[in-house]
């Protein structure tokens, strides 16, 4: 059996302007070793993700996937899949057509629907294929957003607070389910979260962003052993309670 080609690593070294503030972050993410970006509200976490995806301009720096520089490319040519905080499903499209969206941009509607079918099956969405987003639960919407992102065959996956729209009662179950899907993807994955529980379940290492600057990187155990800032100490102490 031919072994699948190894997916490329992500390198990001970006400075993003947000009003009069500047957000700067530099990191590498190896395929199969997800990174969680964690920090307080307003730290700039989502801005860094948006810069990598090409949704906001980079003031300086670069983004590369393997040996391919993508910082000057439009979002649709970067081969980056994004799952947004509120999922941003197309409200007028069915589940099937949301998942088929990327393939529809490349060919006919019928071919796109054919391409979407295995993703609907993989994520248990086939029975929901004709529903609109307004008819879905939070967990179902999350699965649709993830299937849509991965159906585009990305090299990099970005997850922006994927648990925040879920009810507390289903969050643990969906966290475990999402962790399985992220491991199956196997590419470079970056997760933005406020939650050490999300980071523990979904990522191998953590990058802490505070006030637009990286203050620490390591595993959660390394952060617990030597917290670099009062925020890190408070965050981990609260998660242990």
Question: Describe it for me?
Answer:
It is built from nine helices and ten strands. It is of the alpha/beta class and 241 residues long. The chain folds into two domains: 1-79 and 157-241, Rossmann fold (3-Layer(aba) Sandwich); 93-153. The strands form two sheets. A six-stranded mixed β-sheet has the order 6-7-8-3-9-10, sandwiched between helices. Strand 4 (60-65) and strand 5 (68-69) form a beta hairpin. Helix 4 (109-122) packs across helix 5 (138-151). The longest helix has 18 residues, at 168-185. It is globular. The model has no long low-confidence stretch (mean pLDDT 90).
Q: What structural class do the secondary elements suggest? A: alpha/beta
Helix content: 25-40%
Shape: globular
* H/E topology pattern: EEEHEEEHHHHEHEHEEHH
Low-confidence stretches: none
CATH superfamily label of the largest domain: P-loop containing nucleotide triphosphate hydrolases
Count of helices?
9
User: What is the CA-based Rg, rounded?
Assistant: 18 Å
Quick summary:
The protein is built from 9 helices and 10 strands. With 241 residues, it is an alpha/beta fold.
Outline the secondary-structure elements.
Elements: E1 10-18, E2 21-29, E3 35-38, H1 45-53, E4 60-65, E5 68-69, E6 80-83, H2 95-99, H3 101-104, H4 109-122, H5 138-151, E7 156-160, H6 168-185, E8 188-193, H7 196-202, E9 205-210, E10 213-218, H8 220-225, H9 230-240
Parallel strand pairs: 3-8, 3-9, 6-7, 7-8
Antiparallel strand pairs: 1-2, 1-4, 4-5, 9-10
Helix pairs in contact: 4-5
